Amino acid sequence: MSQATIKQARLAAAHEGVAELIVCLEYANGGTSEVTLDQAAGVALMELCAAKTLAELTGQSWERVKEALQVSYNRFQ
C-alpha cells in the first residue's frame, strides 16, 4: 500500500452539520478506495500536507492520511 496516493478530496456533511473530509486513495494497480475523515482528522491532514485547499491534497501519500487518523484518535488519550 506504500504506493497509494490521494487522488481526490471533497467535503461532506456529517452529523449536526459538522464537515467531514472524504479522501479517495488510488493504488499503484489503479484501484481506489474512499476514507472518511472526521473534522479533527481533516484539519490534521490539511496541516500535515501544508495544504490550503483540497486540491493541494492531490498526489500526497496515503501515509499522511494514516497520520491524520492517528492525530484524531490520539486526541482522546
**What is the arithmetic mean of pLDDT?**
94
**Beta content:** 25-35%
Strand order of the largest sheet: 1-2-3
| Oligomer type | single chain
Radius of gyration: 12 Å
Structural class: alpha+beta
Unreliable runs: none
Query: Count of helical segments?
Result: 2
Helix content: 25-40%
Protein architecture, described:
With 77 residues, the chain is an alpha+beta fold. It has one domain. 30% of the residues lie in helices and 30% in strands. It is built from 2 helices and 3 strands; from the N terminus they run βββαα. The protein has helices spanning 39-48, 62-74; strands at 5-13, 19-26, 32-37. A 3-stranded antiparallel beta sheet has the order 1-2-3. Helix 1 packs across helix 2. The longest helix is centred in the C-terminal third of the chain and has 13 residues, at 62-74. It is globular.
Provide a short characterization of the protein structure.
The chain has 77 residues and is α+β, with helices and mostly antiparallel strands.
Give the key terms.
alpha+beta; 3 strands; 30% helix; globular
Write the layout of secondary structure elements.
Layout: E1 5-13, E2 19-26, E3 32-37, H1 39-48, H2 62-74
Antiparallel strand pairs: 1-2, 2-3
Helix pairs in contact: 1-2
